[in-house]
């Protein structure tokens, strides 16, 4: 890995490709909740390690700093993409668009605050912004387990409905489940 600014910028953009491509099999086999928690824990760990490297400064090779910063970027890129999917699946159709929009607005406010936290707090304690972010991300990873799993569940249409349990223990739907849904749809359309 290189510490050249141009190569680092290229690598920073290139890590998004495996982040997006690796997300689909992960949510298919592990589910949304476990995948999101793992990605947030990986992000928090990478940010913590980079913050520790900031404290140690000269004692750590630059390539190691680049590796952990790009690994954290890849994990947070995948988790952000998953948050859009997961948020939409958690709420009923009647409220889905409004809630996703509100979550997006709150995220934008948070992203506007980060440069100020980094500049103002980073002048006093250079390690503090990274420590704050890693703690927040690790707490978020734990809070994800309070949410219901939405993989292989029918989306709710109104707030009175609840998630139904998946019919199989495996998160990936089997061919029989697809055939069953098709047979039910056919019998409903005939009636």
UniProtKB/TrEMBL annotation:
SUPFAM superfamilies: MFS general substrate transporter (SSF103473). The keyword Transmembrane helix applies. Residues 156-176 are annotated as: Disordered. It holds the Pfam family Sugar_tr. Keywords: Membrane, Transmembrane, Transmembrane helix. InterPro entries: MFS_sugar_transport-like, MFS_trans_sf. The chain crosses the membrane at residues 6-27, 34-55, 67-87, 124-147. It comes from the Eukaryota. It is a multi-pass membrane protein. It is found in: Membrane. Residues 166-176 have a biased composition (Polar residues). One of its GO terms (molecular function) is transmembrane transporter activity. One of its GO terms (cellular component) is membrane. This is Organic cation transporter protein.
């Amino acid at each position: 890995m290189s510490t050249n600014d141009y190569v680092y910028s290229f690598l920073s953009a290139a890590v998004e490709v495996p982040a997006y491509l690796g997300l689909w099999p992960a949510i298919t086999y592990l589910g949304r909740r476990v995948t999101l928690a793992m990605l947030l824990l990986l992000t928090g760990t990478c940010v913590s390690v980079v913050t520790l490297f900031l404290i140690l400064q000269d004692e750590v090779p630059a390539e190691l700093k680049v590796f952990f910063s790009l690994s954290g970027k890849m994990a947070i890129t995948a988790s952000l993409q998953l948050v859009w999917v997961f948020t939409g699946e958690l709420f009923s159709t009647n409220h889905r668009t409004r809630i996703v929009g509100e979550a997006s607005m709150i995220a934008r406010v948070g992203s506007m605050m980060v440069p100020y936290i980094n500049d103002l707090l980073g002048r006093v304690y250079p390690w503090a912004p990274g420590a704050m972010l890693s703690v927040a991300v690790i707490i978020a990873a734990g809070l994800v387990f309070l949410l219901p799993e939405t993989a292989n569940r029918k989306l709710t249409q109104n707030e009175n409905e609840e998630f139904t349990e998946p019919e199989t223990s495996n998160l990936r739907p089997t061919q029989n489940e697809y055939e069953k849904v098709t047979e039910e749809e056919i019998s409903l359309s005939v009636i």
